[in-house]
Specification:
Oligomer: heterodimer
Helix content of chain B: 25-40%
Structural class of chain B: alpha/beta
CATH superfamily of the largest domain in chain A: Aconitase, domain 3
Structural class of chain A: alpha/beta
Order of helices and strands of chain B: EEHHEHEHEHEEEHHH
Strand order of the largest sheet of chain B: 1-6-7-8-5-4-3-2
Strand order of the largest sheet of chain A: 5-4-3-6-7
Number of domains of chain B: 1
Helix content of chain A: 25-40%
Shape of chain B: globular
CATH architecture of the largest domain in chain A: 2-Layer Sandwich
Shape of chain A: globular
CATH topology of chain B: Aconitase, domain 4
Number of strands of chain B: 8
Radius of gyration of chain A: 22 Å
Largest sheet of chain A: 5 strands, parallel
Number of domains of chain A: 2
Strand content of chain B: 15-25%
Distance between the termini of chain B: 42 Å
Number of helices of chain A: 16
CATH superfamily of chain B: Aconitase, domain 4
Number of strands of chain A: 19
């Protein structure tokens, strides 16, 4: 047998077009995903350089960032948003690129559309002008976010200049405690390794917990790899992966499907392959986790108290805690539990899939959003929205006092009309708690799992869902 | 397409203290609603610089003399978060030509390099010395020597780190990689066929 290799090395080597000076690689991008915010400038650059799109059939487009979630009647209220979607339509039509538009019934956040359509496949390289492209790593793809000049590069050549990454294996072994979700796992990992701990690495998620996770849970974890500084994260493909993909529109059929599965099976990291680092975490140490600060590494268990700058290990950390507490208007040493919440946001490419809605609906059913809390539920795609409505899940949210919206990125980054106002504090199932992230410079974000967002919505406080709803009997991996 | 080699960047500097300065802070998402990058620049660090009524918060970018600075100095994990190229574009359009930090988030680093803006890192201790020096004497001239991987300021020389690939690309005038990539497109097409990406299958 040849030298054992990690999945990362196998995919990287297979997609290397040629080596460039300085240790850089020209890497083939198998699948390119584009959206309305980071692509129009790239099409403009292409036009300026008088270049065609090299492989239009390997590029797929949707609209997500700026889509209004309350009404799709055109023209949209925001003329700039309207202009951006018109540009995307024109560019995709001109270059023969498949667009999953708002009228298709298949539109959604780009990181939901790829998997739903079976465009996201194991062993491929996927690039998109969005940092949460790491989501697609859940399928055993090497998937990463790129800037707009790189979107131009992929359009023009279907390749990118890249430096090879190191690989860190993160094993989470044992059983998660009841009431602990995939979101808690990744918030715990980022808290443990730090928001910059992953710079220069691809994260390989492995061990009992990831083996048992559904594809949707794996997507939640891989999605936030970038929040830990890792450009991409992946899970080795297995039977769960193949079962999810089988029968989706863009996967091979018949004998070609069997051959693909055979090929995909061989992609998993070989036993004994080299890792640049290995981190082992005990699943039992992971609690429902929430953030208290202004980067996703600033997280604590719901039962912990807010860090004290006086206890910081160095000057930089002290300054960072002070800055975060000043923005969040939180007290050092106080419990995070009980913090008053103004807005509950359930959505984003991290947690707006069908399983998220089923899990959240289970605890929300028959309950009411606390007075004074604005609560919005935003399915990540039109398919998820339709399926929720078919199952009557929308009624549970509407009866509880949530607004039931259309698919898009919404208040995760507030490029559409969904925004925090003033210093509102938002319990959010999204991925970033940066200053100003949710549309108000003084707005405050506390990241948590969807079930914890439900607990915050019904109590009006940052709460332990296990106390509010009772500890679930069934353990969700 | 020949580009000028970038061997040194020299000028005064602005220090934006702190770690984990994310791209939402560098340019808030509401300013991303544009179909070209042409009008970027004034929005740089907007919410950190201005109150809601437009009055100044006294940000380092608005200190006297800062308008002429060409080098931006910050802490660790600069440019984290969103992949938006609008962030380095607005830094570049505001007149900056090089960055010095403790570390850079990778997507930001790549985006900035492609614009011909070197991003070099210093050891934490050296970065502290440089920041303190610049806060004491903001008029100090700073030089990023890309070729020799050094930062020089106030008579001191700090060893700087810059990966070989980026260094070579900058000093050889190949920092925008499109020309290099175009040379490899035939090979890329062959590989795309070998790997089964082409011919692409439609949906069923």
């Amino acid at each position: 047998m040849s030298q054992p290799k990690s999945l990362f090395e196998k995919v990287w080597d297979a997609h290397t077009v040629r080596d460039l000076p300085g240790g850089r690689t020209q890497l083939l991008i198998g699948t390119h995903l584009i959206h309305e915010v980071t692509s129009p400038q790239a099409f403009g650059m292409l036009r300026d350089a008088n270049l065609p799109v090299r492989m239009p059939e390997r590029t797929f487009a949707t609209v997500d960032h700026i889509v209004p979630t309350h009404s799709l009647v055109e023209p949209w209220e925001d003329p700039l948003a309207d202009e951006m979607v018109q540009h995307l339509r024109r560019n995709t039509e001109e270059h023969g690129i498949r667009l999953f538009d708002v009228t298709s019934g298949l539109q959604g956040i780009v990181h939901m559309v790829g998997p739903e359509q079976g465009i996201t496949q194991p062993g491929t390289t996927i690039a998109c002008g969005d940092s949460h492209t790491s989501t697609h790593g859940a399928f055993g793809a090497i998937a990463f976010g790129i800037g707009t000049s790189q979107v131009r590069d992929v359009l023009a050549t279907q390749t990118l200049v890249m430096n090879e990454l190191k690989v860190r294996r993160i094993e989470v072994n044992g059983e998660l405690r009841p009431g602990v979700y995939a979101k808690d796992v990744i918030l715990h990992i980022i808290r443990t390794l730090g928001a910059k701990g992953g710079i220069g690495y691809a994260y390989e998620y492995a061990g009992d917990v990831f083996d048992r996770m559904s594809m949707e849970e794996r997507m939640t974890v891989c999605n936030m790899s970038i929040e830990g500084g890792a450009r991409c994260g992946y899970v080795n493909p297995d039977e769960t992966t193949f079962a999810y993909l089988e029968g989706r529109p863009y996967v091979p059929k018949g004998a070609a499907w069997d051959a693909a599965v055979e090929r995909w099976r061989a992609l998993a990291s070989d036993p004994g392959c080299h890792y640049d680092d290995v981190v082992v975490i005990d699943a039992a140490d992971i609690a429902p986790t929430v953030t208290w600060g202004i980067n996703p590494g600033q997280g604590i268990s719901i039962k912990e108290t807010i860090p004290d700058p006086a206890a910081a290990s160095d000057e930089a950390e002290r300054a960072s805690i002070e800055d975060a507490l000043a923005h969040m208007k939180l007290q050092a040493g106080a419990p995070i539990e009980g913090t008053k919440v103004d807005v509950a946001f359930f959505g984003s490419c991290t947690n707006a899939r069908l399983s998220d809605f089923l899990e959240a609906a289970k605890v929300l059913e028959g309950r009411k959003v606390a007075p004074g809390v604005e609560a919005i539920a935003v399915p990540g795609s039109q398919l998820v929205k339709a399926e929720c409505e078919k199952r009557g899940i929308d009624k549970i949210f509407i009866d509880a006092g949530f607004e039931w919206r259309g698919a898009g990125c919404s208040m995760c980054l507030a490029m559409n009309p969904d925004k925090l106002v003033g210093d509102q504090l938002c319990a959010s199932s999204s991925n970033r708690n940066f200053k100003g992230r949710q549309g108000s410079a003084t707005g405050r974000t506390v990241l948590m799992s969807p079930v914890m967002v439900m607990a915050a919505a019904v109590t009006g406080r940052v709460s332990d869902a296990r106390d509010v709803f009772g500890t679930p009997q069934e353990v969700v991996a | 397409m020949s580009l000028p080699p970038i061997k040194t960047v020299r000028g005064t500097a602005v220090v934006i203290p702190g770690d984990d300065i994310d791209t939402d802070r560098i340019i808030p998402a509401r300013f991303l609603k544009c179909v070209t990058f042409d009008a970027l620049g004034p929005q740089l660090f907007y919410d950190e610089r201005y109150h809601e009524d437009g009055s100044s918060k006294g940000h380092p970018l608005d200190a006297p003399g800062a308008e002429n600075a060409t080098i931006l100095v910050s802490g660790h994990n600069f440019g984290s978060g969103s992949s938006r190229e609008h962030a380095p574009q607005s830094i570049h359009k505001a007149g900056f030509r090089g960055l010095i930090a403790g570390s850079f988030a990778e997507i930001f680093f790549g985006n900035a390099t492609t614009l011909g803006m070197p991003c070099v890192t210093l050891a934490s201790e050296d970065l502290g010395v440089l920041q303190a020096m610049l806060q004491r004497a903001p008029e100090t001239e700073v030089e990023i020597d890309v070729e020799n991987r050094e930062v020089r300021a106030g008579g001191q020389v700090f060893p700087a780190m810059l990966p070989d690939g980026a260094q070579g690309a900058l000093t050889d005038g190949r920092w925008d990689p499109l020309a290099d990539l175009l040379e490899g497109v035939e090979d890329a097409s062959r590989l795309a066929h070998d790997l089964g990406y082409l011919p692409a299958e439609g949906p069923s």
